[in-house]
Design a protein that fits this description.
There is one protein chain. It is built from 2 helices and 7 strands. With 218 residues, it is an alpha+beta fold. Strands 1-2-3-4 form a 4-stranded antiparallel β-sheet. Strands 5-6-7 form a 3-stranded antiparallel β-sheet, with helices on one face. The N and C termini lie far apart (116 Å).
């Protein structure tokens, strides 16, 4: 009686198969690492964007409170759109006279100021990765004996998002060469446009623009 011998056709992987398998594994791992890097960058950009959004909202909320109590006649003196300004002066209640209840008014100013250490020369002078950036500043009792200056926002872009200094309306909002802090009036409607920028952990510039309309009560 003959016995059949069962011989395995494949005792293991050949060298070529091992090389192919390793190549496929390397490709998969490389893809996963790449996706992880992209996700990390997106997350970091998202955090920076959220911080800018929060800073812009705080500044706008403060401005809304300040301007809501402003004397309407002082705001009415501003030029109307399509003209714009990067600073405005307005009157706000100072004190009330005891004898006749009359309100005395003091002048406040909102304006764009170049960031400390920065110069308007197209160079990153203060080494923070931003060029010619500024601050949004509120000055109470402007030019008075009790003048107080408060910085409402840092990282204000020199020009509004999408705009460059070329005498054209680059971002299509009806204004020309407007700054990162821009005030625009249409009748009793005062509009504020604000662009903040920051640097993400990956070195990219993140920009956030916000706008709001404000009506005076006085």
């Amino acid at each position: 009686m003959l016995r059949r011998k069962h011989v395995s056709r494949r005792a293991g992987m050949t060298l070529v198969e091992m090389l192919v398998a390793m190549s496929l594994l390397a490709t998969v791992l490389g893809g996963l690492l790449s996706m992880g890097g992209v996700s990390t960058k997106l997350c970091e950009s998202g955090v920076t964007n959220s911080n800018l959004e929060a800073a812009a909202r705080r500044a706008v909320d403060r401005l809304s409170r300040e301007l809501a109590g402003a004397r309407s006649t002082s705001l009415a003196a501003l030029p109307e759109s399509p003209q714009w300004q990067s600073s405005i002066d307005f009157d706000r209640p100072g004190s009330i006279r005891v004898d006749d209840g009359r309100i005395t008014w003091s002048t406040s100013r909102l304006e764009f100021r170049t960031e400390t250490g920065e110069t308007n020369d197209g160079v990153d002078n203060d080494g923070d990765g931003l060029v010619d950036e500024g601050t949004l500043v509120l000055v109470h009792d402007f030019n008075g004996a009790d003048e107080v200056t408060t910085v409402l926002a840092h990282g204000v872009r020199e020009y509004l998002e999408g705009e460059v200094a070329n005498g054209q309306d680059d971002n299509g909002n009806g204004l020309i060469d407007e700054r990162g802090v821009t005030f625009e009036r249409e009748g009793a409607d005062l509009r504020l446009l604000l662009t903040l920028e920051g640097i993400g952990r990956d070195g990219t510039t993140v920009t956030r623009t916000i706008q709001t309309s404000i009506w005076s009560r006085n």
